[in-house]
Amino acid sequence: MAKSDFKPLSDALAKLNANRKTVAKKEPARPPPQMSLELWPDSVRGVPNAVLRGAVFSVSQIRTSSKKRELIASVEGQEIRFLGVRFNQTDLDVWEMLLHLGRQQPLGNRVEFSAHSLLKALGRGTSGKHHEELKEEIARLTSGLIEITWTADKRTYGGSLVTDFFRDEATQRYVVIFNQKMLGLYEGGYSHIDWEQRQALGKNSLAKWLHGFYATHAVPHPYRVETIRNLCGSTAALPQFRQKLKLALAQLEKIGAITAWEIGDDDLVRVSKIPTLSQKKHLGRLRR
Predict the structure, then answer these.
(1) Rounded to whole angstroms, how far apart are CA atoms 43 and 39?
(2) DSSP state of 243
(3) Over the Cα atoms of the chain, what is R_g?
(4) pLDDT tens for residues 135-183?
(5) Is residue 160 within 8 Å of residue 141, measured between CB atoms?
(6) Inter-residue contact 283 to 275 (CB < 8 Å)
(7) Any bridge partners for residue 270, and if so which?
(8) Residue 260 host element (H or E)
(9) Under a CB-based contact definition with an 8 Å cutoff, are residues 37 and 177 in contact?
(10) Crossing angle, helix 205-215 and helix 225-232, to 10 degrees?
């Protein structure tokens, strides 16, 4: 073979590199990273602040229904609209438990559980009546539509709090799915709710609402009694609500959720509490 028939080594390397580039172009794109909730401790429930700072989960036992996007009470800086059958604190108990189960895997995956185990975890009975109540609560969470607008950011989250659910009628096993857009609620800030404390409040809906509300505050602001009544969705007359509020605050102090409280002559509710570790870090950043 003539010497001229041999190709230089540089030509061979150039051809090899060209082939590699061609193969690389044909490789499928990598999937986006899986979106998951933070894996918070088992003793708490991670709940978005936006739903705890207004009447999304009210204290009322009367369930009203809205066929239009109804504006409901919320703190300054956010607007909340709701379409469907209104939620209350029993629905929040269920949603917090579902989120707790869902945090262990990427959003959009199947969250599986039995009705019996969920009812036991909620501290409820397991009779047919309790199973039917759970069916209603999960259906409400799936059908109710909320819109939360953070006014300063001009950003809105819209959707149901549970995307889909499936139920095996023979075994009463459930599959619940949360959409990845649920992370939009958490990006607005969220708090750890002490589950043992919440359970200790029993059926006191106002105490439960206050427990979640003040959990979102590192240093609670003074609020007028009337403002708290509106934010929690109570329909009680102001004098009656003020008495219920005093009892609920006393219960929060008893379980250690707050350290002190008072309702002054100016009708302002002042609450003291020990901030969580993450809230202390937040306060430290603000002071810099």
Answers:
(1) 12
(2) H
(3) 26
(4) 999 999 999 999 999 999 999 999 999 999 999 999 999 999 999 888 8
(5) yes
(6) yes
(7) 262
(8) strand 260-263
(9) no
(10) 100
